[in-house]
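Data card: per-record layout.
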Amino acid sequence: TSWGREKEVDAMRNMLQQYPQGLVACVSDSYDIYKACSDYWGGELKSLIENRNGTLVVRPDSGELPKIVLDVLDRLAAKFGTTKTSTGHKLLPPCIRVIQGDGIDINSLDMILKSMKDAGWAADNLAFGSGGALLQKLH
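The structure for this 139-residue chain is written out next.
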């Protein structure tokens, strides 16, 4: 967000160029997660992502669970395509994945994975993070 809305895609491009290999995660909902997935990651920056020696991990950091995870997967799949796992689940290409950190606890984790399975998505598409809220929920 420090680059501003008008230069959001430039900030994303800069990150990919500064880290041309390996795993890189990016909070992508600063302004519009759907535009970020469809127009930036899956549009203007798609070839840069596909030609990196690594994986971009898209992070929606807000939104209603599990809907936001499924929506992001669907948007990325529309741009990057999918293959099928040996169990018949959809898998994004190795260059792109998703991480969900906001709102994660034992119950939401189970709910997200069940929703993904029901929608035909492989669990390998998603990583989970946990922030301070999770630590505060421990008793």
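Known properties of this structure: The chain has six helices and six strands. The mean pLDDT is 93.

See the next section for split statistics.
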